[in-house]
Write a structure and sequence with these properties.
This protein is an alpha/beta fold. It contains two helices and six strands. The longest helix is centred in the N-terminal third of the chain and has 19 residues. This is Tautomerase family protein.
Length: 129
């Protein structure tokens, strides 16, 4: 149940937005083995004056933040980074313009299925990938 957010500083047509969201979804499926249709991805477009980026980055600078359950291996995380960067590159975004940050709150900090801690719920999938 990763929660992904893509933040950019320039406007894109709807088909490009959908392409970026699909790229993150497919990367999550491949690298983290998330269940099919576990798709919680937001796309946030900022005005350039509201999103400062390093001078070495282009107008295509793209920030991806993923909040996910803990338990994935470093190898799975590496694969996730590469999957996202490779898929974004196919959409015209230079790998050097991509920053990915993972957040892994403990399962007890997730309220699911009517307000139960995720640590007390059968998630239905493995976290040890």
């Amino acid at each position: 149940m990763p929660l992904a957010k893509i933040e950019v500083r320039r406007s894109r047509p709807p088909e490009e937005v959908q392409g970026l969201m699909e790229a993150v979804y497919q990367a999550l499926r491949t690298a983290l083995k998330v269940p099919q249709d576990d798709r919680q991805i937001r796309y946030v477009e900022h005005r350039p004056e509201h999103f400062s980026v390093p001078a070495t980055k282009s107008e295509n600078y793209t920030y991806v933040e993923i909040v996910m359950f803990p338990g994935r291996s470093l190898a799975a995380k590496r694969q996730l980074y590469q999957e996202i960067v490779t898929r974004f590159q196919a959409l015209g975004i230079d790998p050097q313009d991509v920053l990915i940050v993972l957040q892994e709150p403990p399962l007890s900090n997730w309220g699911l299925q009517g307000g139960q801690p995720a640590s007390e719920v059968d998630l239905g999938f493995e976290l040890d990938v």
